[in-house]
Amino acid sequence: MAKVKILLVEDDITMVSLLQTLLKMEGFETLALQPDEDITAAVLKEKPGVVLLDVHLSGQSGLEILDQLRSTKGASDARVIMSSGADVKDECLRRGANAFLMKPYMPDDLIAAIKKALNHHS
Q: Which fold has domain 18-53+68-119?
């Protein structure tokens, strides 16, 4: 079985490197995007199993990226896990995120959220 690809959209370099290490140890393939890249185009091209998306990015809003994904044919069914240091869970879920993780979160919580998102068929 091919490895599941996790797309990381996070502007904290340290966080990206920690996530890549953790996810590789769990058997996932990771691809980190710069926050100013075209995330929707990347999702269409890469077809990730899960997109891990920070709400507060330096160049753009994670919520706006989520809106773009949900309204783009071919990307609308992408599984998106949002994360933020602010408690914006309700807003993220209302706008179509599959899950929300409050930072700082435990690695086990992240892995559980990814596995749950992958098992959820909409």
A: Rossmann fold (3.40.50)
